[in-house]
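User: Enoyl reductase (ER) domain-containing protein, Zoarces viviparus:
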Amino acid sequence: MSGEQAPTLQQQPEQETKPDEPPPAAAAEAPQESASSPAAEEKPLSWRALVLTGHGGYEKIKLQVKTQTRPQLQAGEVLVRLKACGLNFAELLGKQGLYELLPAPPVILGMEGSGVIEAVGEGVTDRKVGDRVIAMSRSGMWQEVVVVSANLTFPMPEQMSFEEGAAIPVNYITAYMMLFEMANVRPGKSVLIHMAAGGVGIAVTQLCQTVPDVTVFGTASASKHETIAQGGVTHPIDYRTKDYMEEIRKISPKGVDIVLDPLGGSDTQKGFSLLKPLGTLVVYGAANCVTGQKKNLLAMAKTWYNQLSLTALKLMQSNKAVCGFHLGYITDGELISRTMFKLLELYDQGKIKPRIDSCYHFEQVTDAMKRMHERQNIGKVILLPEAKEEEAKEEEEAAESKSNPEPAENVEKAEAAVDEKEEEATEEVKAED
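Assistant: Predicted structure for Enoyl reductase (ER) domain-containing protein:
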């Protein structure tokens, strides 16, 4: 989750993993295998990956099949075969070139996933082959097999599904750190969360219920109100047809204690004005910058023009606090691990449970991203690396065609990168629009 540059698929320099700092996005590297699997070395490893080939519309994300020989895992690393991956708003930003921590294209997207460990590197003693784990990285998680630091994997509770495992890390860590580390939510407080039906919104709502007598105001379209109310939102507000500031003031004339703002621009100013004295505003996104498929310079300019601007004197006079949160810039691996284990404990206690909105196979990534972009989801949108059943036969035929001089239909071979240590082949697979 750090901001370091990840090696490309063709370049794999040795890296030193610090125990107290998340490593570079090792997931963006080509998967590797442990020396303890001699049989695996006889057969190249093939896997599917979603690659951002450039900035722009949905067509810039290509489903590719890659094949590579299996070098040794480095010390402290594990090889995970992913069963589910999480889709976050950061990927929508990254597609448009608005996510500053994402390496330049071509790059594999994705920051979280869950799966089964297939190999472990030297020095890994608390993970073993066959373990079901949640895994994290700054990028590179949207692929079938991935290499990550063992320090960024977390054992899954027995009753947790792979889809739930992929839905927890980014959304729930974000929600937990904002509520408990920054805003210091306490009994009797009130919280406003925008996009309350999204992954972070639902995580915030559930975590608020672990503290007695917390009132939750949540903005969402009217069609989602019944669901989020059942989930714990005290006062759902339709931001499309009503002024949410006026609605909140009707219920709570003094305002709220905590505002969590993923929108930016004028909404940040509104959030600050809604705060009670000693209240806290946490800004953690700029969703107002994203309008159409591609980068909208006008929307960006409008958002930043209307952004909240304060002086230290104004803060003193208002007795309010303003914070900024960005999980991608948290470089303290121990802090991330401690938060994840606390969340897994809450899951075991039945106090939190990710809501899965929908699941899409890699071939359907366009549909998945459209669903989130158009604010249709209630909960987490999940991507499944495994091929759809109707696609499986085509992929088998494509694999066989590698040894056949006749070209396979509907499979387009990308350029092969060869160096002194390895040979990698990449095939592009037609994704559904």
